[in-house]
Amino acid sequence: MGTLRSDGYPAPVPVQAVEFQDDFWAKRIQLIRDVVLPYQWDALNDDIPGVAPSHAIQNFLIAAGEAEGSFGGLVFQDSDLAKWLEAVAYSLAAHPDPELEELADQVIDLIEKAQREDGYLNTYFILAEPEKRWTNLRDWHELYCAGHMMEAAVAYYEATGKRRFLDVMCRFADHIDSVFGTEPGKKRGYPGHPEIELALIKLYRAVGDERYLKLSKYFIDERGKQPYYFEEEAKERGDRDIKGYWGKDRHAYYQAHLPVREQKTAVGHAVRALYLYSGMADVAMETGDEELLKACRTLWDNVTKKRMYVTGGVGSTAHGEAFTIDYDLPNDTAYAETCASIALVFFAQRMLRTELNGEYGDVLERALYNGVLSGISLDGKKFFYVNPLEVWPEVCRHRNDLQHVKVTRQGWFGCACCPPNIARLLASLGSYVYSADSRGVYVHLYAGSTAKLQVGGRELEIIQKTSYPWDGYIEITVNPKEELECTLAFRIPGWCRQSSVKVNGREIDLAAVTQKGYARISRTWKPGDKVEIDFSMPIERMQAHPGVRENAGKVALQRGPIVYCLEEEDNGPNLSDICLPRDSELIAEFDKDLLGGVVVIKGSAFRSADPFGDDRLYRPAEAGYRQVEIKAIPYSTWANRSPGEMLVWIRQC
Amino acid sequence: MGTLRSDGYPAPVPVQAVEFQDDFWAKRIQLIRDVVLPYQWDALNDDIPGVAPSHAIQNFLIAAGEAEGSFGGLVFQDSDLAKWLEAVAYSLAAHPDPELEELADQVIDLIEKAQREDGYLNTYFILAEPEKRWTNLRDWHELYCAGHMMEAAVAYYEATGKRRFLDVMCRFADHIDSVFGTEPGKKRGYPGHPEIELALIKLYRAVGDERYLKLSKYFIDERGKQPYYFEEEAKERGDRDIKGYWGKDRHAYYQAHLPVREQKTAVGHAVRALYLYSGMADVAMETGDEELLKACRTLWDNVTKKRMYVTGGVGSTAHGEAFTIDYDLPNDTAYAETCASIALVFFAQRMLRTELNGEYGDVLERALYNGVLSGISLDGKKFFYVNPLEVWPEVCRHRNDLQHVKVTRQGWFGCACCPPNIARLLASLGSYVYSADSRGVYVHLYAGSTAKLQVGGRELEIIQKTSYPWDGYIEITVNPKEELECTLAFRIPGWCRQSSVKVNGREIDLAAVTQKGYARISRTWKPGDKVEIDFSMPIERMQAHPGVRENAGKVALQRGPIVYCLEEEDNGPNLSDICLPRDSELIAEFDKDLLGGVVVIKGSAFRSADPFGDDRLYRPAEAGYRQVEIKAIPYSTWANRSPGEMLVWIRQC
What we know:
Number of strands of chain A: 24
Helix content of chain A: 25-40%
Oligomer: homodimer
Strand content of chain A: 15-25%
Largest sheet of chain A: 10 strands, mixed
């Protein structure tokens, strides 16, 4: 296995360090292995009837000289294969599978053969427009695809110790380094779709070549300078309109409106933004750049305190798949791309490295359990690209401003960025549970699991027993190989208003040891030490900041990290008609037969007495209500049964 | 003055029959005369700095050979001048003005000179593409412009007795009749934008030529037949894509998806739809076509009971300026074009002729006082094209799906259909107050005024004294020239829950005489007879049908026919934060200094206690509220002060 260079900050543990043994994640990760990866392999090979063909493998076959034909799909089609390979790498790391590894090696063989002599690698430009390489960084995603390939190569090296793919991507990185930079004769460009910034840092950590760090830093520092590179290259291409598709908002769409250190609000395409911010955080950590880190914190605050759905969804408009303005979070026209929630998890993980602060862990958890997981069906074969918080299927079929909202999950997409992205995130989930450095271990997520960790070179096993996220009780067994003095820090979730921690049966004074949302317990740990954590997990009626006009007078039900929704299947049509009394009792109940086993929330609410008996469109308000029983399910599991309405924010009365 | 042919149904009284003497309409109609018509004349002459040039007069000057140059503006630019001339005609009818009439005659002179020998008249095709006449009925609005010119010509003939313009338009109608129809060698086309259907009926009534009735009926009957004419003509043009801009929804957009008798729901472009339905009602009345009338009733019910805003706005989506589906009435993305509410008034007036039924009068009144009037500023120089029911200016500036929403009224528009449309409606308002036939007079609107009417050829003066719409008490003096036995029928507004009518001091048993919303009083009327009507006019909290998801839990304040709204100027920002207790007292108060003198509604409501003290985006719901005083103003008067938020539907708590 490969090992990573350290930047001195606590590092996420390797994927394979954590073995999930719970009912929640273990089966989902197994689903990735057993269903999602094979399904997506078929999709990449255009072998799934009735869904948009990917062309991704075929493009590489042609570029490698092993098939005839022309390029198919979108200009960034290579990235789908890259993300699939990255997911395969994480899966192999945690669960060796010689057959899958053999398949991956064959794909890598193909990739190597497709690579040009000078290191260049992108099937679109190799096959379709070789003379146009690097002439439109704004739109053509070459650096984006390169970044995804680099991430995959590093993950594969980490998983298998095999260097071939890594070497292929180092050659490409070297080529890119020869093309871009401030040195005379180089292009002063940067990617229209950020991604390579964080990927180059991974490559740098894997092989130690400082040029990759420098190149990443260059892309970040160059961004947003004037004259705008995207306009300069458009002039060079002789474009009649140098502004391109996005018109007056174009600089913001690409986060190129200002140098990144001057950006204060999250604007433009949400996935691009969050990949960029992730890369910025990486570079800030690697270079000790406090100014850059401060920019990351400012942007983090803006995203998570002004522009994020309760599900951890981000990017509230379909137009540009973008952020809009503070508190503008419409529920029905929401975009909230699955990839954007995934990118928010990436950004959160990096911010959590910069500072052990529960705010970061809380958002990571919120996005993971809700806005990310909603992107994949329980059977692993259908996906949401867009994740609204309120759906009225009939109107989605008729209204142009809701065309982006699908009311059923889709088998694949012409632009299929989300399915392999969710696969790679879930396959790598082990690395999100803990981080560690020479001083201790930091527990970010709770899940039944056994972890084999290293603290300052010494071995430490941590076993979690819990029914999280359905229950807030976690029993942790700490097994250092031998006595170990270190800190174990446990995240006290922001959603939790009452918590207790016992060590070997003795209650800890949490107020005394908790800083910024982490209870830090420093002691000499002995094999068999027990930590019992109890997070009180009542059903919470969450309200939004009053600035979120759309949610005025409404509540979202949340229990632990899980955000709930109403579905038509359980509650009948016209969910907006339901109002939940402030004081009605709500009950949480585990239903093992529903949606793979979930805690549902039940209670009494009101509906209009005789909604369709009176056909007047407008009439004097009358207090005619009838009591109804409602049932809410976890938001992430919606649209796994019959298609119908869905609603997160429920009127309160 | 000209006189109209009668179809046997009660006829609207001539514009000049009613002289307004109230504080509400009289000053608005004077504003049309003193400000709006001169302002719009300047606009049509491109003489208003800073607004989009119209080119309308210039196009006619060029077409008449009196100026050099090429066509400017949109393909339907002639219609703006037509509507202005129609408004001038109504204004002249009620208030003779030799100078204005001289100006109109000069314009008519120009129009006559622009007309081609064969009767054809459309400056776009005369100037820009003479060879393309009648080759694209779908998109190019030739028949639409012809219709507006015909309406203007009839109005001018009615007002002045001068036939020149009427003759010009008869020649054009004869030409159109020679081109279209079922006879061999004629085109089987019909207009993409209905309008000529109702105009031809006006022309028919003015000159009695049955060909015009037949042509109108032909356009209506031909519509929606297969093969679709718009596709046939597209093939003939050799278009690569015969579908045109509107793709899969194209037939519905033009109301050409089905023969009109088979249409059950209002679909597509709202103005087109309502002009079409108006024409259908006209043809049904002229021909006694019960089947066609039934189609009108079905469409009326769908529009007014499923697809109309509480303001009388219609067409809930900007995409295609169109109807969507039942109960889909979003407040912020609403389109609700001013012209569509005007067209709804036209349709209502016709339906009211077919049957004396308060439902029609109620909708007419609702649209007139709210969705129509909101289209023009109090100073007569600024206009709304789009009339949303909820506005958050900051988000309108940033969000693509709100680009159609303007937060301030505009001086003119590149597509300036609305300003002259509202001018012609208000200038002709006199004809909406009463209708009459040989059996009696039917009172539809209440306004301080003196009317000189005819019942079966005998003269009757009706004087209304009232502060309507601010007060529901109306004193009516009935002055027949000599004793007159006839029915006077008074509309009992649907918004009124308690009403009384006295004749010469004696209370009438309303239940006994009221049918379908009209109190019908048949007696021998003597000069000086007094009718006192008292409509109780409390403030009503209106609720929407529960199917209108957007308005669940919300109320709209209405008093009499006036729908109210909150504005930021009176209530501070974040209007959605306000909730109105079910039982709080609301007070109506006349403020003579506000917005030209309006009744405002005041009361106590609640707001979040400390809206910005807690910066968490999501938090457990707490009952922290503070009491605030709110003030609501008539919806039609919003955006006459400083720009800001506006809200019609208020949360109830």
